[in-house]
Amino acid sequence: MFETVFDTDERGQVGIGTLIVFIAMVLVAAIAAGVLINTAGLLQTQAEATGEESSQQVADRIQIQSATGTVEQVNSTGVIDGSGDTTAKVTEVNISVTKSPGADDIQLENVTYEFVTSDQVITNVVGSDQVSTITAATDDNVITDRADRYALNFSSTDLNGNLDGGDKVTVTLTTAPGASTVTELRVPDSLVDKSAVKL
């Protein structure tokens, strides 16, 4: 009439069921933990890459030391010569550059430049023929030290013409990581009897 509380058959079945549920919970928890750890690792890698790229975009800038212009006599057709009816114009722009404090090495041949005048926008990539060394430990067109100085030379061909007295040009130099340096160059009003001017 009364069943025994200590029935060994029933106790064994309950114990196996509990064990199966426990193992299933452990497996689910292990799989969930693995997914979370993988996701956390992926997010950490992405965050590190984003932080590094962001810091490069801010820090890896070119610093402009000075800018000068070469003045020559140009005739009405834009040809540089000393004969006939000529006008003094800036035919070449030379920009002395180094790297900003905290910047990594900067390959000048990967730098893009943009000249904005009153009537045109010129955009291109600095070529090896446009770079000359002023003072540097190596002659590879890479700014590796703050003491390195290079000159970027832009001819009238690069500027799509010559610059007149009083002209203003906005120059933007952008390094490969995307850090930009913007400066405004202004040609002096008078270029008479000058062979070079500070811009």
TrEMBL record:
<keyword id="KW-0966">Cell projection</keyword>
<comment type="function">
    <text>Flagellin is the subunit protein which polymerizes to form the filaments of archaeal flagella.</text>
</comment>
<keyword id="KW-0969">Cilium</keyword>
<keyword id="KW-0282">Flagellum</keyword>
<dbReference type="GO" id="GO:0097589">
    <property type="term" value="C:archaeal-type flagellum"/>
</dbReference>
<keyword id="KW-0472">Membrane</keyword>
<keyword id="KW-0974">Archaeal flagellum</keyword>
<keyword id="KW-1133">Transmembrane helix</keyword>
<keyword id="KW-0812">Transmembrane</keyword>
<protein>
    <recommendedName>
        <fullName>Flagellin</fullName>
    </recommendedName>
</protein>
<feature type="transmembrane region" description="Helical">
    <location>
        <begin position="12"/>
        <end position="37"/>
    </location>
</feature>
<dbReference type="GO" id="GO:0005198">
    <property type="term" value="F:structural molecule activity"/>
</dbReference>
<dbReference type="InterPro" id="IPR013373">
    <property type="entry name" value="Flagellin/pilin_N_arc"/>
</dbReference>
<comment type="similarity">
    <text>Belongs to the archaeal flagellin family.</text>
</comment>
<dbReference type="Pfam" id="PF01917">
    <property type="entry name" value="Flagellin_arch-type"/>
</dbReference>
<dbReference type="InterPro" id="IPR002774">
    <property type="entry name" value="Flagellin_arc-type"/>
</dbReference>
<dbReference type="GO" id="GO:0097588">
    <property type="term" value="P:archaeal or bacterial-type flagellum-dependent cell motility"/>
</dbReference>
